[in-house]
What we know:
By secondary structure, the protein is α+β, with helices and mostly antiparallel strands. The protein has 3 domains: 2-159 and 211-302, no CATH class; 164-206, no CATH class; 305-498, no CATH class. Helices cover 32% and strands 23% of the residues. It has 15 helices and 21 strands. The chain has helices spanning 14-21, 30-42, 53-56, 110-123, 144-158, 178-184, 211-229, 248-251, 254-267, 271-285, 304-315, 413-425, 427-432, 463-466, 480-489; strands at residues 2-7, 11-13, 46-50, 79-83, 86-91, 94-99, 133-135, 140-142, 164-170, 175-176, 188-190, 193-195, 200-206, 296-301, 354-358, 364-368, 377-383, 386-394, 437-446, 454-460, 473-479. The strands form 7 sheets. The protein has a 5-stranded mixed β-sheet. Strands 1-6-5-14 form a 4-stranded mixed β-sheet. Helix 9 runs antiparallel to helix 10. It is globular, with a radius of gyration of 30 Å.
Amino acid sequence: MVSEYIREQKRYALHELRVMLSPSDVKCSDYVIIRIINRLKSYGVLKAVKSSDEQLNMTDLVEEDVSLDVTLDVNKDTLLYVFTFVGVIIIEGRILKCYPKYIRKTKQPTAELKQIIKVLRKYNSKEQIVKMYNDGNNETSFNRLAVILFLLNDYFENGIYTKTEDIVEINGMGEIHWDKTINETYPIIKNNSPYYVELRTKHRVNDEENFIKKLHECILSMCSEELKRADLLELLDIEGVSLTDDTIDELEEDEYILYQLEKEMNVQYNTRKQVVLKTIKMLILNKNAIDNNNSFSLYGTNSFNLVWEKVCAETMNDCLHTLIKDLEIEDIVIPSGALYKKSDELISIIEKTKWIGRTEDNREFVKEADKTLTPDLISIYKKGDESDFIIFDAKYYMIQLEEGKNLCGQPGVGDVTKQYLYQLAFKKFVEANKIRNVRNCFLIPTEEDGDDGVIKLGSVRMDMFLELGLEQIQIRQLSAKKMYVNYLRKQKLDIEVLDL
Protein backbone atom coordinates (compact mmCIF):
# COMPACT_ATOMS: atom_id res chain seq x y z
CA MET A 1 0.00 0.00 0.00
CA VAL A 2 1.23 3.50 -0.88
CA SER A 3 1.61 5.77 2.16
CA GLU A 4 2.96 9.28 1.59
CA TYR A 5 3.32 12.52 3.52
CA ILE A 6 2.01 15.60 1.71
CA ARG A 7 2.71 19.22 2.69
CA GLU A 8 -0.26 21.53 2.45
CA GLN A 9 0.12 24.37 -0.07
CA LYS A 10 3.39 23.00 -1.48
CA ARG A 11 3.56 23.07 -5.27
CA TYR A 12 4.06 19.55 -6.68
CA ALA A 13 4.96 18.86 -10.29
CA LEU A 14 3.17 16.08 -12.17
CA HIS A 15 6.25 13.84 -12.20
CA GLU A 16 6.46 14.17 -8.38
CA LEU A 17 2.84 13.10 -7.98
CA ARG A 18 3.41 10.19 -10.34
CA VAL A 19 6.19 8.88 -8.07
CA MET A 20 4.19 9.50 -4.86
CA LEU A 21 1.03 7.82 -6.10
CA SER A 22 2.70 4.74 -7.60
CA PRO A 23 3.42 1.65 -5.49
CA SER A 24 7.14 0.91 -5.19
CA ASP A 25 6.82 -2.41 -7.02
CA VAL A 26 4.33 -1.30 -9.69
CA LYS A 27 4.53 1.41 -12.31
CA CYS A 28 1.07 2.94 -12.60
CA SER A 29 -0.21 3.88 -16.00
CA ASP A 30 -0.66 7.54 -16.85
CA TYR A 31 -4.40 6.86 -17.04
CA VAL A 32 -4.50 5.77 -13.36
CA ILE A 33 -2.46 8.78 -12.17
CA ILE A 34 -4.64 11.22 -14.11
CA ARG A 35 -7.80 9.54 -12.77
CA ILE A 36 -6.58 9.89 -9.18
CA ILE A 37 -5.57 13.53 -9.70
CA ASN A 38 -8.97 14.36 -11.20
CA ARG A 39 -10.78 12.63 -8.32
CA LEU A 40 -8.76 14.63 -5.79
CA LYS A 41 -9.58 17.82 -7.69
CA SER A 42 -13.29 16.97 -7.86
CA TYR A 43 -13.46 16.69 -4.06
CA GLY A 44 -11.73 20.04 -3.58
CA VAL A 45 -8.58 18.80 -1.83
CA LEU A 46 -6.25 19.36 -4.79
CA LYS A 47 -5.93 22.46 -6.96
CA ALA A 48 -3.94 23.05 -10.13
CA VAL A 49 -2.03 26.24 -10.97
CA LYS A 50 0.04 27.12 -14.01
CA SER A 51 3.69 26.23 -13.59
CA SER A 52 6.01 29.20 -12.97
CA ASP A 53 8.99 30.14 -10.81
CA GLU A 54 6.75 32.56 -8.91
CA GLN A 55 4.28 29.80 -8.02
CA LEU A 56 7.06 27.53 -6.74
CA ASN A 57 7.96 30.11 -4.09
CA MET A 58 4.41 30.81 -2.89
CA THR A 59 3.07 29.51 0.43
CA ASP A 60 -0.59 30.42 -0.07
CA LEU A 61 -3.08 29.80 -2.83
CA VAL A 62 -4.88 32.70 -4.45
CA GLU A 63 -8.16 31.64 -6.04
CA GLU A 64 -7.36 33.65 -9.17
CA ASP A 65 -4.31 31.44 -9.74
CA VAL A 66 -6.31 28.20 -9.84
CA SER A 67 -6.37 26.73 -13.32
CA LEU A 68 -9.77 25.62 -14.58
CA ASP A 69 -8.17 23.61 -17.36
CA VAL A 70 -8.50 19.94 -16.43
CA THR A 71 -6.54 18.69 -19.46
CA LEU A 72 -3.37 16.94 -18.35
CA ASP A 73 -0.37 16.37 -20.56
CA VAL A 74 1.56 13.47 -19.03
CA ASN A 75 4.67 14.37 -20.99
CA LYS A 76 4.87 17.98 -19.77
CA ASP A 77 4.82 19.68 -16.38
CA THR A 78 2.62 22.57 -17.51
CA LEU A 79 0.74 22.62 -14.22
CA LEU A 80 1.65 22.51 -10.55
CA TYR A 81 -0.57 20.76 -8.02
CA VAL A 82 -1.44 22.10 -4.56
CA PHE A 83 -3.06 20.13 -1.73
CA THR A 84 -5.42 22.36 0.26
CA PHE A 85 -6.15 19.82 2.98
CA VAL A 86 -4.81 18.88 6.42
CA GLY A 87 -5.54 15.37 7.65
CA VAL A 88 -5.71 11.92 6.05
CA ILE A 89 -6.87 11.13 2.51
CA ILE A 90 -7.38 7.53 1.39
CA ILE A 91 -7.87 7.12 -2.33
CA GLU A 92 -7.77 3.90 -4.33
CA GLY A 93 -5.61 2.12 -1.77
CA ARG A 94 -3.25 5.10 -1.32
CA ILE A 95 -2.90 6.87 2.02
CA LEU A 96 -1.94 10.55 1.84
CA LYS A 97 -0.99 12.11 5.18
CA CYS A 98 -1.37 15.86 4.71
CA TYR A 99 0.37 18.10 7.23
CA PRO A 100 0.15 21.92 7.67
CA LYS A 101 2.21 24.25 5.51
CA TYR A 102 4.23 25.75 8.40
CA ILE A 103 6.01 22.41 9.00
CA ARG A 104 9.19 22.54 6.89
CA LYS A 105 11.96 20.87 8.88
CA THR A 106 10.85 17.30 8.29
CA LYS A 107 9.17 15.54 5.41
CA GLN A 108 7.67 12.84 7.64
CA PRO A 109 6.24 14.68 10.67
CA THR A 110 4.51 11.70 12.28
CA ALA A 111 4.45 13.11 15.83
CA GLU A 112 3.27 16.54 14.66
CA LEU A 113 0.47 15.13 12.50
CA LYS A 114 -0.61 12.77 15.29
CA GLN A 115 -1.07 15.79 17.57
CA ILE A 116 -2.91 17.70 14.82
CA ILE A 117 -5.32 14.77 14.35
CA LYS A 118 -6.18 15.06 18.06
CA VAL A 119 -6.79 18.79 17.58
CA LEU A 120 -9.06 18.10 14.59
CA ARG A 121 -10.97 15.51 16.60
CA LYS A 122 -11.63 18.01 19.39
CA TYR A 123 -12.44 20.78 16.90
CA ASN A 124 -15.08 18.55 15.27
CA SER A 125 -16.36 17.03 18.52
CA LYS A 126 -19.29 19.47 18.86
CA GLU A 127 -20.78 18.36 15.57
CA GLN A 128 -23.73 16.00 16.10
CA ILE A 129 -23.59 14.41 12.65
CA VAL A 130 -21.34 11.78 11.12
CA LYS A 131 -19.92 12.89 7.76
CA MET A 132 -20.76 9.66 5.96
CA TYR A 133 -20.25 11.03 2.45
CA ASN A 134 -17.67 13.08 0.58
CA ASP A 135 -19.31 15.48 -1.84
CA GLY A 136 -17.40 16.37 -4.98
CA ASN A 137 -18.29 18.36 -8.06
CA ASN A 138 -19.57 15.39 -10.01
CA GLU A 139 -19.74 12.49 -7.60
CA THR A 140 -20.43 11.42 -4.03
CA SER A 141 -18.53 8.69 -2.21
CA PHE A 142 -18.99 6.91 1.08
CA ASN A 143 -16.53 8.27 3.67
CA ARG A 144 -15.63 4.96 5.28
CA LEU A 145 -12.73 6.34 7.33
CA ALA A 146 -14.91 8.96 9.06
CA VAL A 147 -17.53 6.32 9.86
CA ILE A 148 -14.92 3.92 11.26
CA LEU A 149 -13.45 6.63 13.47
CA PHE A 150 -16.88 7.60 14.76
CA LEU A 151 -17.73 4.01 15.72
CA LEU A 152 -14.42 3.37 17.46
CA ASN A 153 -14.47 6.69 19.34
CA ASP A 154 -18.09 6.05 20.35
CA TYR A 155 -17.13 2.61 21.65
CA PHE A 156 -14.28 3.95 23.77
CA GLU A 157 -16.61 6.59 25.20
CA ASN A 158 -19.86 4.63 25.62
CA GLY A 159 -18.97 0.94 25.39
CA ILE A 160 -20.62 -1.87 23.46
CA TYR A 161 -24.23 -1.65 22.30
CA THR A 162 -26.50 -3.08 24.95
CA LYS A 163 -30.17 -3.93 24.87
CA THR A 164 -31.90 -3.77 28.21
CA GLU A 165 -35.18 -5.25 29.41
CA ASP A 166 -37.25 -4.19 32.41
CA ILE A 167 -38.23 -7.20 34.54
CA VAL A 168 -41.15 -6.98 36.99
CA GLU A 169 -41.01 -9.40 39.95
CA ILE A 170 -43.01 -10.12 43.10
CA ASN A 171 -41.18 -8.91 46.21
CA GLY A 172 -37.88 -8.70 44.35
CA MET A 173 -34.77 -6.69 45.24
CA GLY A 174 -35.32 -3.90 42.72
CA GLU A 175 -37.18 -0.58 42.86
CA ILE A 176 -40.88 -0.78 43.84
CA HIS A 177 -43.18 -0.37 40.85
CA TRP A 178 -46.01 1.47 42.62
CA ASP A 179 -48.40 1.67 39.67
CA LYS A 180 -48.44 -2.10 39.24
CA THR A 181 -48.45 -2.72 42.99
CA ILE A 182 -51.52 -0.51 43.51
CA ASN A 183 -53.40 -1.72 40.41
CA GLU A 184 -52.64 -5.45 40.62
CA THR A 185 -52.57 -6.28 44.37
CA TYR A 186 -54.87 -5.91 47.34
CA PRO A 187 -53.66 -4.03 50.42
CA ILE A 188 -54.46 -4.69 54.05
CA ILE A 189 -56.22 -1.69 55.57
CA LYS A 190 -55.29 -0.87 59.15
CA ASN A 191 -56.14 2.41 60.87
CA ASN A 192 -57.35 3.73 57.50
CA SER A 193 -53.88 3.17 55.97
CA PRO A 194 -53.09 0.61 53.22
CA TYR A 195 -50.33 -1.94 53.76
CA TYR A 196 -49.08 -3.96 50.77
CA VAL A 197 -47.71 -7.39 51.60
CA GLU A 198 -47.12 -8.31 47.96
CA LEU A 199 -44.99 -5.70 46.15
CA ARG A 200 -44.29 -5.47 42.44
CA THR A 201 -40.59 -4.59 41.92
CA LYS A 202 -38.66 -3.86 38.77
CA HIS A 203 -35.04 -4.13 37.69
CA ARG A 204 -33.22 -3.78 34.39
CA VAL A 205 -31.15 -6.58 32.84
CA ASN A 206 -28.84 -6.62 29.82
CA ASP A 207 -29.56 -9.05 27.02
CA GLU A 208 -26.08 -10.54 26.56
CA GLU A 209 -27.19 -12.71 23.63
CA ASN A 210 -28.65 -9.79 21.71
CA PHE A 211 -27.93 -9.97 17.95
CA ILE A 212 -27.15 -6.23 17.63
CA LYS A 213 -24.52 -6.53 20.38
CA LYS A 214 -22.80 -9.35 18.48
CA LEU A 215 -23.01 -7.34 15.25
CA HIS A 216 -21.50 -4.30 16.98
CA GLU A 217 -18.58 -6.45 18.20
CA CYS A 218 -17.99 -7.75 14.68
CA ILE A 219 -18.09 -4.26 13.19
CA LEU A 220 -15.66 -2.81 15.74
CA SER A 221 -13.21 -5.69 15.29
CA MET A 222 -13.39 -5.28 11.51
CA CYS A 223 -12.82 -1.50 11.76
CA SER A 224 -9.76 -2.00 13.97
CA GLU A 225 -8.34 -4.55 11.56
CA GLU A 226 -8.78 -2.18 8.61
CA LEU A 227 -6.95 0.66 10.39
CA LYS A 228 -4.21 -1.75 11.45
CA ARG A 229 -3.81 -3.00 7.89
CA ALA A 230 -3.57 0.61 6.68
CA ASP A 231 -0.99 1.42 9.40
CA LEU A 232 -3.21 4.20 10.74
CA LEU A 233 -3.84 3.13 14.35
CA GLU A 234 -0.85 5.01 15.76
CA LEU A 235 -1.27 8.12 13.61
CA LEU A 236 -4.95 8.41 14.54
CA ASP A 237 -4.09 7.62 18.17
CA ILE A 238 -6.64 4.82 18.37
CA GLU A 239 -6.21 1.58 20.23
CA GLY A 240 -7.37 -1.37 18.19
CA VAL A 241 -9.97 -3.75 19.63
CA SER A 242 -10.58 -7.43 18.98
CA LEU A 243 -13.91 -8.33 20.54
CA THR A 244 -14.72 -11.43 18.51
CA ASP A 245 -13.23 -13.79 15.98
CA ASP A 246 -16.46 -13.90 14.03
CA THR A 247 -16.78 -11.95 10.79
CA ILE A 248 -19.89 -10.20 9.52
CA ASP A 249 -20.26 -12.74 6.72
CA GLU A 250 -20.16 -15.58 9.26
CA LEU A 251 -22.75 -13.88 11.47
CA GLU A 252 -25.64 -13.68 9.00
CA GLU A 253 -26.60 -12.70 5.45
CA ASP A 254 -26.70 -8.97 4.72
CA GLU A 255 -30.48 -9.01 4.20
CA TYR A 256 -31.08 -10.48 7.64
CA ILE A 257 -28.63 -8.04 9.28
CA LEU A 258 -30.36 -5.05 7.65
CA TYR A 259 -33.76 -6.41 8.73
CA GLN A 260 -32.60 -6.69 12.36
CA LEU A 261 -31.12 -3.19 12.28
CA GLU A 262 -34.36 -1.70 10.94
CA LYS A 263 -36.33 -3.62 13.54
CA GLU A 264 -34.13 -2.29 16.35
CA MET A 265 -34.24 1.29 15.03
CA ASN A 266 -38.05 1.22 15.12
CA VAL A 267 -38.09 0.55 18.88
CA GLN A 268 -34.95 2.43 19.94
CA TYR A 269 -35.44 6.00 21.15
CA ASN A 270 -31.99 6.66 22.60
CA THR A 271 -30.33 9.23 20.28
CA ARG A 272 -26.80 7.84 20.62
CA LYS A 273 -27.96 4.28 19.91
CA GLN A 274 -29.99 5.45 16.90
CA VAL A 275 -26.85 7.07 15.41
CA VAL A 276 -24.80 3.90 16.07
CA LEU A 277 -27.46 1.72 14.40
CA LYS A 278 -27.66 3.97 11.32
CA THR A 279 -23.87 4.11 11.05
CA ILE A 280 -23.56 0.31 11.24
CA LYS A 281 -26.24 0.04 8.57
CA MET A 282 -24.24 2.29 6.24
CA LEU A 283 -21.14 0.11 6.73
CA ILE A 284 -23.15 -2.99 5.81
CA LEU A 285 -24.44 -1.25 2.67
CA ASN A 286 -20.94 -0.02 1.71
CA LYS A 287 -18.59 -2.93 2.15
CA ASN A 288 -15.49 -1.72 0.29
CA ALA A 289 -12.60 -1.57 2.80
CA ILE A 290 -10.61 1.65 3.13
CA ASP A 291 -7.65 0.08 1.32
CA ASN A 292 -9.86 -1.05 -1.57
CA ASN A 293 -8.97 0.29 -5.03
CA ASN A 294 -12.36 1.99 -5.33
CA SER A 295 -12.28 3.71 -1.96
CA PHE A 296 -12.15 7.42 -1.23
CA SER A 297 -12.17 8.72 2.36
CA LEU A 298 -11.27 11.94 4.12
CA TYR A 299 -10.56 12.84 7.72
CA GLY A 300 -9.48 16.42 8.25
CA THR A 301 -10.22 19.86 6.84
CA ASN A 302 -9.40 22.10 3.91
CA SER A 303 -9.98 25.13 6.16
CA PHE A 304 -7.18 24.72 8.67
CA ASN A 305 -7.14 28.50 9.15
CA LEU A 306 -10.43 28.11 11.06
CA VAL A 307 -8.85 25.46 13.29
CA TRP A 308 -5.97 27.83 14.09
CA GLU A 309 -8.47 30.58 14.92
CA LYS A 310 -10.32 28.25 17.30
CA VAL A 311 -7.09 27.15 19.00
CA CYS A 312 -6.06 30.78 19.56
CA ALA A 313 -9.51 31.83 20.78
CA GLU A 314 -9.70 29.09 23.42
CA THR A 315 -6.13 29.43 24.68
CA MET A 316 -6.07 33.26 24.73
CA ASN A 317 -9.25 33.63 26.80
CA ASP A 318 -11.41 35.22 24.12
CA CYS A 319 -13.94 37.75 25.51
CA LEU A 320 -15.85 38.63 22.35
CA HIS A 321 -19.00 36.89 23.54
CA THR A 322 -18.59 37.75 27.22
CA LEU A 323 -21.18 40.09 28.69
CA ILE A 324 -19.74 43.59 29.16
CA LYS A 325 -20.69 43.58 32.84
CA ASP A 326 -18.62 40.41 33.36
CA LEU A 327 -15.36 41.79 31.89
CA GLU A 328 -12.28 42.15 34.09
CA ILE A 329 -12.69 45.92 34.23
CA GLU A 330 -13.54 47.69 37.46
CA ASP A 331 -16.54 50.03 37.51
CA ILE A 332 -17.42 49.60 33.86
CA VAL A 333 -18.62 52.78 32.15
CA ILE A 334 -20.85 52.84 29.06
CA PRO A 335 -20.07 55.94 26.90
CA SER A 336 -22.79 58.55 26.54
CA GLY A 337 -25.01 57.90 23.53
CA ALA A 338 -23.89 54.27 23.13
CA LEU A 339 -26.44 51.86 21.65
CA TYR A 340 -25.30 48.93 23.78
CA LYS A 341 -25.80 48.03 27.45
CA LYS A 342 -23.75 46.29 30.15
CA SER A 343 -25.89 43.20 29.64
CA ASP A 344 -24.81 42.98 25.96
CA GLU A 345 -21.85 40.98 24.67
CA LEU A 346 -18.56 42.76 24.02
CA ILE A 347 -18.92 42.23 20.28
CA SER A 348 -22.11 44.33 20.28
CA ILE A 349 -19.93 47.44 20.71
CA ILE A 350 -18.83 47.18 17.08
CA GLU A 351 -21.11 49.36 14.99
CA LYS A 352 -23.14 47.79 12.20
CA THR A 353 -23.42 49.40 8.80
CA LYS A 354 -26.50 51.57 8.23
CA TRP A 355 -28.10 51.79 4.80
CA ILE A 356 -30.13 54.93 4.10
CA GLY A 357 -32.88 54.87 1.53
CA ARG A 358 -35.59 57.29 0.41
CA THR A 359 -39.31 56.83 0.13
CA GLU A 360 -41.44 58.05 -2.77
CA ASP A 361 -42.13 61.27 -0.88
CA ASN A 362 -38.34 61.82 -0.48
CA ARG A 363 -38.29 60.87 3.20
CA GLU A 364 -35.16 59.10 4.50
CA PHE A 365 -35.31 55.72 6.23
CA VAL A 366 -32.52 53.61 7.75
CA LYS A 367 -31.89 49.86 7.52
CA GLU A 368 -29.20 48.27 9.68
CA ALA A 369 -27.22 45.28 8.37
CA ASP A 370 -27.23 42.04 10.36
CA LYS A 371 -23.46 41.55 10.26
CA THR A 372 -20.48 43.74 11.01
CA LEU A 373 -16.70 43.60 11.49
CA THR A 374 -15.78 40.59 13.63
CA PRO A 375 -12.28 40.24 15.10
CA ASP A 376 -10.99 36.73 15.74
CA LEU A 377 -10.62 37.30 19.47
CA ILE A 378 -10.20 39.97 22.12
CA SER A 379 -8.48 39.45 25.44
CA ILE A 380 -8.66 41.71 28.45
CA TYR A 381 -5.56 41.08 30.50
CA LYS A 382 -5.65 42.17 34.14
CA LYS A 383 -2.30 43.49 35.33
CA GLY A 384 -2.37 44.90 38.85
CA ASP A 385 -4.96 47.67 39.02
CA GLU A 386 -4.95 48.13 35.25
CA SER A 387 -6.29 46.17 32.31
CA ASP A 388 -4.79 45.67 28.86
CA PHE A 389 -7.23 45.57 25.94
CA ILE A 390 -5.72 43.33 23.25
CA ILE A 391 -7.18 42.78 19.78
CA PHE A 392 -5.83 39.55 18.28
CA ASP A 393 -6.16 38.23 14.75
CA ALA A 394 -5.17 34.60 14.18
CA LYS A 395 -3.42 34.53 10.81
CA TYR A 396 -2.62 31.24 9.07
CA TYR A 397 0.20 32.69 6.97
CA MET A 398 3.88 31.98 6.30
CA ILE A 399 5.48 35.43 6.45
CA GLN A 400 9.02 35.98 5.20
CA LEU A 401 10.16 39.13 6.99
CA GLU A 402 13.96 39.06 6.86
CA GLU A 403 16.57 41.64 5.98
CA GLY A 404 18.06 41.03 2.55
CA LYS A 405 15.09 38.94 1.38
CA ASN A 406 11.91 39.89 -0.43
CA LEU A 407 8.81 40.35 1.72
CA CYS A 408 6.32 37.58 0.94
CA GLY A 409 3.58 35.45 2.48
CA GLN A 410 2.21 38.38 4.50
CA PRO A 411 -1.50 39.16 5.17
CA GLY A 412 -3.03 41.54 2.64
CA VAL A 413 -3.69 45.24 3.07
CA GLY A 414 -7.33 44.42 3.81
CA ASP A 415 -6.28 42.34 6.82
CA VAL A 416 -4.12 45.18 8.12
CA THR A 417 -6.76 47.90 7.69
CA LYS A 418 -9.44 45.74 9.32
CA GLN A 419 -7.21 45.31 12.36
CA TYR A 420 -6.99 49.10 12.71
CA LEU A 421 -10.76 49.40 12.27
CA TYR A 422 -11.30 46.93 15.12
CA GLN A 423 -9.34 49.23 17.44
CA LEU A 424 -11.23 52.25 16.14
CA ALA A 425 -14.55 50.48 16.84
CA PHE A 426 -13.66 50.02 20.52
CA LYS A 427 -11.94 53.43 20.94
CA LYS A 428 -14.78 55.21 22.79
CA PHE A 429 -15.35 52.27 25.14
CA VAL A 430 -11.64 52.01 25.92
CA GLU A 431 -11.34 55.75 26.61
CA ALA A 432 -14.50 55.85 28.77
CA ASN A 433 -13.05 53.08 30.96
CA LYS A 434 -9.59 54.70 31.09
CA ILE A 435 -7.83 51.63 29.71
CA ARG A 436 -4.30 52.86 29.04
CA ASN A 437 -2.84 49.93 27.16
CA VAL A 438 -4.43 48.88 23.88
CA ARG A 439 -2.58 46.40 21.71
CA ASN A 440 -3.08 44.99 18.22
CA CYS A 441 -1.47 41.69 17.29
CA PHE A 442 -1.32 39.06 14.54
CA LEU A 443 -0.88 35.47 15.81
CA ILE A 444 0.93 33.17 13.37
CA PRO A 445 1.74 29.45 13.82
CA THR A 446 5.32 28.16 13.58
CA GLU A 447 7.07 24.85 14.09
CA GLU A 448 9.80 26.65 16.07
CA ASP A 449 9.50 26.69 19.86
CA GLY A 450 11.19 30.02 20.69
CA ASP A 451 11.34 31.40 24.24
CA ASP A 452 8.13 30.38 26.03
CA GLY A 453 6.80 29.28 22.62
CA VAL A 454 6.80 32.87 21.29
CA ILE A 455 8.89 34.53 18.57
CA LYS A 456 8.71 38.34 18.20
CA LEU A 457 8.71 38.59 14.44
CA GLY A 458 8.16 42.35 14.17
CA SER A 459 5.22 44.63 13.41
CA VAL A 460 3.26 46.27 10.60
CA ARG A 461 1.87 49.80 10.42
CA MET A 462 0.18 52.32 8.18
CA ASP A 463 1.17 55.86 9.18
CA MET A 464 -2.21 57.40 8.41
CA PHE A 465 -3.76 55.23 11.15
CA LEU A 466 -0.99 56.11 13.60
CA GLU A 467 -1.98 59.75 13.13
CA LEU A 468 -5.43 58.81 14.47
CA GLY A 469 -3.80 57.59 17.68
CA LEU A 470 -4.11 53.86 16.81
CA GLU A 471 -1.49 51.28 17.70
CA GLN A 472 0.77 49.56 15.17
CA ILE A 473 0.11 45.84 14.79
CA GLN A 474 2.56 43.49 16.50
CA ILE A 475 3.42 40.14 14.88
CA ARG A 476 3.97 37.13 17.09
CA GLN A 477 4.76 33.63 15.93
CA LEU A 478 3.49 31.00 18.35
CA SER A 479 4.76 27.45 18.69
CA ALA A 480 1.91 25.46 17.16
CA LYS A 481 2.93 22.39 19.16
CA LYS A 482 2.65 24.27 22.49
CA MET A 483 -0.58 25.97 21.48
CA TYR A 484 -2.11 22.58 20.63
CA VAL A 485 -1.05 21.21 24.03
CA ASN A 486 -2.85 24.12 25.72
CA TYR A 487 -5.92 23.63 23.52
CA LEU A 488 -6.15 19.89 24.18
CA ARG A 489 -5.64 20.36 27.93
CA LYS A 490 -7.97 23.39 28.12
CA GLN A 491 -5.15 25.55 29.46
CA LYS A 492 -4.77 29.30 28.97
CA LEU A 493 -1.64 30.96 27.64
CA ASP A 494 -0.09 33.62 29.88
CA ILE A 495 -0.51 36.66 27.61
CA GLU A 496 2.39 38.40 29.33
CA VAL A 497 4.84 36.10 27.51
CA LEU A 498 3.85 37.81 24.23
CA ASP A 499 5.63 40.97 25.46
CA LEU A 500 3.26 43.32 23.67
